[in-house]
Structure formats: C-alpha cells, structure tokens
Amino acid sequence: MSPRRSVADTLETRQRILDRSLAIASAEGLEGLTIGRLADELGMSKAGLLGHFGTKEGLQLAVVDEAAAVFAREVPQRVKQLPSGLPRLKAVCEAWVSYLEREVLPGGCFFTAATTEFDGRSGRVREALAGMNALWRRDLRIHARRAISDGDLPADTDVEQLIYEIIGIMLALNHFLQLEHDSSAPVRARKALDRLFSAR
C-alpha cells in the first residue's frame, strides 16, 4: 500500500468514527460515546479506535469540532453570498430553522444537547462548547450591528436582547421538535422570528 493510500484510509476511518460518534452524541449525549460501543459498531478494536483520538476526551473534542463543521455547512455557509446585515441575519435564521426542521442530526441540535450536558461542569469539553457558542453569538452580533448601521434596524436596538431572543426561539424549536414531535414547530418559529424582526 502506498503512503498516500494509507493516509487516505486513515482519514476515511477517522471520518467514519466521527460521523457515527456525532449521530450518537446528538441523540444520547457526549457521555453516550463509549469506546467499546463504537468499536463494536464500526468493527474496530478499541486500541485502533483510540489511536485516532488518544482518549475519550480527545474523541469528545473532535466530535464538538465535527458538529461545528456540520452546523457551519448547513447554516452560515448556505447564505454567505448574501450581504452582511439584516438580509444575512434573516437568512441565517431561516437556514437555522431549516437545519433543525430537516433533522440533519438524529437528535436535533447537537449543541443544545451537549451544552445542557456540560454546562455545570468544568474542563476542556465545556470550554470548547462555550467557545463555539461565543463564536456563533459574535457572528449574529456582527450582522445585527451592520443592520443597525444600514438603517434596517432602529438605532436603539438592543443587540444583546435581539440575539437572546433569536437563540430562545431556536431552543424552543429544538425542544418542540425533539421532545414533543410537534411538526408545527418550524412554522411557529418562523412566525416568532418574523414578529421579532418586524417589531423593530
């Protein structure tokens, strides 16, 4: 086997592990990832699986990164062609609703589940989750402030309150889709977002 093929096989195996791990973690939490279970499901040895990540925490951190990559692909990157400001902010919110509505991950929003699981803990996984959430709020803040400077939102708009309410709507959407299996939840989320933006 050529070195190039060997590297490609290693990357392919790592991606297979991450795909399965993310699916499990979105539904059962990051603590639901056990090396034994993954090894059995993927037909690998425990040592072979751990060789890709070093430790269970290393695997959890890699899953957080993978979840962020999936979210970025499904939400902000889908609307990156739109100008910054209110058009992008509205489009990002619509893409976010669509992402949850289409059940891209079997357990709904990975970050909602993982944040609930780790918010009362300390350590690298909690820090990674908090960091990802902070980056996402920063992006929303950029578009909201641009909308204000463009005159599309009133000058006295409380940006932090706006972001708080957007995130609240998305948390409610994930709750009603996942726990209640309420198919009308995306419609309600869109109505709430329309009201939020039209009220300003």
Structure description:
This protein is mainly alpha-helical. It contains 9 helices and no strands. Helix 1 packs across helix 6.
What are the salient characteristics of this protein?
200 residues, mainly alpha, 0% strand
Query: How widely separated are the two ends?
Result: 62 Å
Count of beta strands: 0
Helix content: over 70%
H and E string? HHHHHHHHH
Number of helices: 9
What kind of sheet is the major sheet? none
Structural class: mainly alpha
Average pLDDT confidence is 93
Looking at how many chains there are and whether they match, the oligomeric state comes to: single chain
Give the overall silhouette.
Answer: elongated
Give the percentage of residues in beta strands: under 5%
Q: Care to give the gist of this entry?
A:
This protein is mainly α and 200 residues long. The chain is built from 9 helices and no strands.
Topology:
Blueprint: H1 3-28, H2 35-42, H3 46-50, H4 56-74, H5 86-101, H6 110-118, H7 124-149, H8 159-178, H9 185-198
Helix pairs in contact: 1-4, 1-6, 4-7, 5-7, 5-8, 5-9, 6-7, 7-8, 8-9
